[in-house]
# Entry
Amino acid sequence: MTLFTEFGRYLLMIKGMFSKPENGKMYWKEFMHQCGEIGIGSLGIVALISFFIGAVSTLQTAYQLVSPIIPKSTIAQIVRDTIILEFAPTLVCIVLAGVIGSKIASELGNMRVSEQIDALEIMGINTKTYLVLPKIAAALLTIPMLIVIAGGLGIWGGRLAGTLSGILSPEEFDTGLLNAFVPYNVFFALIKAYTFAFIISSIPAYYGYHVNGGALEIGRASTKSVVVSCIAILFADYLLSQLLLS
Amino acid sequence: MIEVKDIKKGFGEKQVLKGVSVKMEAGKCNLIIGASGSGKTVFMKCLVGLFEPDEGEIIYDKANFLTMDDDQRKEVRKQIGMLFQGSALFDSLTVERNIMFPLDMFTKDNYATKLKRVNEVLERVKLKDVNKKFPAELSGGMKKRVGIARAIVLNPKYLFCDEPNSGLDPQTSLVIDKLIKEITTEYNITTIVNTHDMNSVMEIGDHIIYMHQGLKEWEGNNKEIIFSKNELLNEFIFASEFLKDAKDMRMLEQTGKIDNDRNMDELIK
# Structure
């Protein structure tokens, strides 16, 4: 299958999601379930990663800033901007592509192979609307929240690592943190978060929904969905930076 | 009633259905039989709308399913119940929730009413104390019965069963066959069963369609099949020596003679 055929099928799946729900209550229930699965289910890993990324960023920035004429508070400034602009949205979303993406692809793939999707279709349910839309909507709601949490925890991790290792005092870190803060960077990070959330949820849903075969194909779809999602995230990251920062 | 007129379906170069026409009546078990690759699964998937035929008509009670828009198709599908080969139960839901799912989706009944209906159909398929069990905790036969219960919970007009006996022991297969037959008669459903199982053919085959290489090769019922002269059908149905003996014995019982040159005395002995 060519890239264009795949992309066309992907667009058709997205278009097919938008139909009137058979029962709004059931769709809401599924949406809430997915919010729990995607949002709360990923909170632990996001917290862990962002904390350590922040800590490592502080240590490595301090290691490179050896000039005595640069104030130590600059370390906090660099850590803040790196985390807000890149680490929190991009790195966390790449990890989430693995965690959430493989889960979505294998869940839908298993449902396809075991004919559960066919069973829903025969009941008269639009499976794209019932199975795919709540996942994408839940990702769009919860992933930006996770990114905000990741940003906060990353900066806190950086502050903690900086002060515990004696690189800079908490006051110096806080000074740097507030120095030359650009609120637009947060807006940019959120734009990236929404874009990546859509990528992370829709690409695995496409591969899972269109699985053909058995257990082996579910595994392949899961791997492919993660790889394609990561590439798409990096491509979108470059595109958004070019569009919104230059 | 479902009427199929000359449906054709191909995948790329391969033509799987080459023009099949058949009428399936209400209150009867319509069996589609045929060797693997004969096109019976594709035929059934075309009937329920999982595959779109390239040509032909599928008429559900005077309305052509293939020319309907999505909303009209949804309405027809609400009247369809289907039992899948692997039961297709939702793994994450209990038996009760699996059966209640169509009711949750398409009715505004309260929980108590829905539960009452779930228990009614569970009783109908002779299952007890399984409400809170998950599909993984059930045997193959029980899964099939839960699948039947879910298929009939909305009182469908059409029941489709894809290989209902696959993976089941002969005794459980008979129970499932009997259940399908009873439900068909009781609710006056048009039942279409896709099967390989010769027991089913003989037990519940009110109307049998034998498919061979994408075409309807033979049509009749479970009484006529014994006396059929169709060579392809006979090769398929009576493939083993045991079944050949059984056929000849049945023929001998009913007509006093057999239609081949076997020694009757030896057969009786």
Q: What stands out?
A: Chain A has a mean pLDDT of 94. The CA atoms of residues 192 and 204 of chain A lie 18 Å apart. The first helix of chain A runs from residue 3 to 16.
